[in-house]
Amino acid sequence: MAYSPYPQYKKTVAYWIDKRPAHWEERKLKFSVTLINEKVDARNSSLEYLGLEHIEPWTGKRIDGIVFESDGVASGFEKNDVLFGKLRPYLAKVHKAENDGIATTEALVLRADSIIKPEFLKYYLLSSDFIDVVDGSTYGSKMPRANWDFIENLSVLLPHLDEQIKIADFLDHKTTQIDRLIEKKKALIEKLNEKRIALITQAVTKGLNPDTPTKPSGVEWLGEVPEHWQVRRLKLLAVEPLKYGANEAAEFTDRDLPRYIRITDVREDGTLHDETFRSLPEDTAEPYLLDEGDILLARSGATVGKSFQYEKSWGIAAYAGYLIRFRADSGLINSTYAYFFFKTASYWANINSTLIQSTIQNFSAEKYSNIVMPLPPMDEQHTIVDFVIVEKSKIDRMEQKVREAITKLEEYRTALITAAVTGKIDVRNIELGRSG
Length: 436
Description:
Blueprint (H helix, E strand, L loop, with lengths): L6 H13 L5 E4 L4 E4 L2 E3 L7 E2 L22 E5 L4 E4 L8 E3 L4 E3 L3 E6 L5 H9 L1 H8 L12 H4 L3 E4 L2 H46 L7 E3 L7 E3 L3 E4 L9 E2 L14 E3 L20 H4 L9 E4 L8 E3 L7 E3 L3 E4 L8 H7 L3 H12 L8 H5 L2 E4 L2 H44 L15
């Protein structure tokens, strides 16, 4: 037997072949589709451009509303061609074109031959078995890519054309149902987030007693505050001036060195991504090391206003130049109270109104320093923090359950596609009624 450099491929294909229905035909992909290599100058084309960022992972759907234009070479495609993202194939960026257009050269343009329907081809390329094999063949660690020379020799299991149509119709129907459930759960997450913001905003800017007398804060976006509260600028609540982070490249991954926190490392829930870990040499990190409770604020780009509170449990860490550090004066303000303020609707109203007036998405240390904060007495700050932590955790737990349900639905969607296009589900006699 000749040596194969792709042991994973051999194992997986053997599994497909062993399990396929008897009437299904095995063919190599290169004998089922044609690779289209029509290159065009995107600058001189009137056709709409499609980048990988316009394709939703694992669904085949196009994402609208993303503005991105290519200014270089692109690949031409026609209606019903199927695009397969060869960059980071584990993302499963697959799309069947609804119109003629041009696409990034990071997408393979595949045109179905007479023995395969493009609708079936789309779902076949979205199957987890196929994606896993392609992903196992990639080269390059930071930007892994698949190679057509490998992909074209993968096997495709083909039923008759009428059965391919049945399978595609079945999957269109079932995935639409699943997607509707997912959208409902995503809408629930949005409502929970609105509830969380309202909870924090009320507690941090108005206090916990609704009967407390109020007074004008003197700041339009803040409105009324409790009568016994103060209103102070952020710079007067810090032990030192707000400070920019290190302007260093994120080159190191040594976990024995101080972590290098960038805004892209921060999750929406305030934790850090483990897979994006980067570090700095100790002498470089030293001027930017974080203390317990330090708050980092994003100063530019789409993440302006985003905040992160450091805890020692993350390990020794420094922070990057597009972040600004606020170190609270513990005699004046509870750092977690300050962190919750950066989650309020009032704070975001100020950020957004300032950005609207500016041509550049940037919020400098000076601007942050002059943000006005409501300031209760210290004992009341502690009470507010304790209250928010307890009530927020209830909402967080509800959201986590909804996210877990979404994950299960997405996994079911992928498993269903894989089962249908490999013949593990016989859909020929399934009637697709309204209830599915």
